[in-house]
């Protein structure tokens, strides 16, 4: 378990959008060994919604566009998966 001060000192240097992007990348990399395209699609859709619902006072505008792209790409991945 990491101490709270270590996490806080890491997050002070970055905005919320960058931290969410890091978590999205780590979650996607964690889902890849499952070899399930539907899990990756659900992960993509979930983070798209999270990026869309994050208040714009906390993140720059381009994270809203990333959320829109992920919400569009997620269902496409879901429908093209064979799992």
From TrEMBL:
Pfam families with a match to the protein in the record: DUF8006
Keywords linked to the UniProt accession: Membrane, Transmembrane, Transmembrane helix
Coiled coil (UniProt feature): none
Chain segments annotated as transmembrane: 12-32, 39-55, 61-78
Segments forming domain DUF8006: 1-82
Name of the protein described by the UniProt record: DUF8006 domain-containing protein
Organism from which the protein derives: Halogeometricum pallidum JCM 14848
